[in-house]
């Protein structure tokens, strides 16, 4: 998973559902799956906190 703001990355483990999905996609398109990379993007907690306006600053 990669933060789209700062680039911080963490590795996540795929469960069997994702593995089966990848095999099914390959088979459906006539491929034999030999490997895969899946990247998820989002905003990490630090960047999310920075983007939040300070509460009750007036």
From TrEMBL:
Residue positions binding Fe cation: 19, 36
CC cofactor: Mn(2+); Fe(2+); Zn(2+)
The membrane spanning regions, by residue number, are: none
Q: Which InterPro entries would you find in this protein's record?
A: FUR (IPR002481), Fur_C (IPR043135), WH_DNA-bd_sf (IPR036390)
Write out the entry's keywords from A to Z: DNA-binding, Iron, Metal-binding, Repressor, Transcription, Transcription regulation, Zinc
Which superkingdom? Bacteria
**How many and how are cofactors bound here?**
Binds 1 Mn(2+) or Fe(2+) ion per subunit. Binds 1 zinc ion per subunit.
Residues noted as binding Zn(2+) in the record, renumbered to the chain: 3, 6, 44, 47
* The keyword Lipid metabolism appears for this protein: no
List GO molecular-function terms, semicolon-separated. DNA binding; DNA-binding transcription factor activity; metal ion binding
Q: Which Pfam families match?
A: FUR
Name recorded for this polypeptide: Transcriptional regulator, Fur family protein
